[in-house]
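It would be a great kindness if you could assist me with a short task in structural biology. A protein sequence and the structure tokens that stand for its backbone fold form the material at issue. I should value your view on which stretches of the chain appear to form regular backbone elements. The record follows directly beneath this note.
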Amino acid sequence: MNSMEVLRPTLIRIGGRIYRKNNIQQQSYPNEEEDEFYAGPGDPMDEPFDAFMVEETERGFQCAVEVPSPLYKYIIGKKGETRKRLETETRTSISIPKPGMEGQIVITGQQRSGVISARTRIDVLVESFRKKQPFTHFLSLALNQPAIQEKFLQFKEEVLEKCSKDHGVDSSLFQNPAKLHLTIGTLVLLNDQEIQKACELLQKSKEEFIDKTVGGKPLTVEMAGIEYMNDDPAMIDVLYAKVHMKDASDKLQLIADRLMELFVASGLMMKEWDKVKLHATIMNTLFRKDSNVEERNNATTGKSPFKERETFDGRNILKSFENFYFGELQLNSVCLSQRFSTESTGYYATSGQITFS
């Protein structure tokens, strides 16, 4: 560990509190399925003694924490080493449900401070490894109304007619018209309880600010003009259509930003930007490999299983179609959409949604 890592350690925000992450040198075990993560002892003065519900029992103290079953393995570690180390250093006993079974992780110990220390480190483990999980759901506004799909197909046809000789431009780049959408943010929901929590947050957003913003009416928006995500128009990864309110108000941006803030505060969504980038992906080099790809909110840093990503030359597309008009449409719902899914309409399967009118 270098001196800067000591002086300026990585900070992790959990439940409104900030913790230090202790960086250590990790050995590589190529024959093991999972990498081990070590939550070091840290400074006892850093432990938040009022942060958790700790119950006093006949034998000492106890604290329970809800953790999705896919994350149990990170708390157990290779051959149970992480759990053993946590138990030894905090003088506690940590009970974890069997793999695949949802339930609570229960920490017991004779000292309240030890129980809280173990709980804090488990939270750090869960938060760290949750960030490494591929997102499972995303908040979306569907843009796949028939008139928009028709104009999008016209755009695709004209681009291929005029620009197919440009480097990297072919039909595999284009979005599925039935899945045209705006992404507000991506979520990692690892069990039914977290999906239910996300649905409840959506309903809360409707009651707290969406109804007041839209006044019980759909939002009339226009999809017009194209932009690209990176710096060089000759080497584009993602081309998107711009979406804006027809009346030039900021209602759509306000709803998107408030939704992001609500879900980030809940811990279900990572904050990537101060404002949501309102864009509809229409061409994406990841579509070459998988037509079901959904991008993260910034559409450039989303993890992809494919190491190589061939760009395309979009200079002629931008020159010829810079102001292409895809049409006007009514937005009337926000969906909690499932990644890698398709329902009967051709759009993503929905785990929950709210409507404006």
Q: What stands out?
A: The longest strand covers residues 219-228. The helical segments are 3-7, 72-76, 81-90, 112-130, 146-163, 192-214, 251-266, 315-321. Residues 197 and 268 are 9 Å apart (CA to CA). Confidence is low (pLDDT under 50) at residues 2-7, 24-37, 41-49, 297-306.
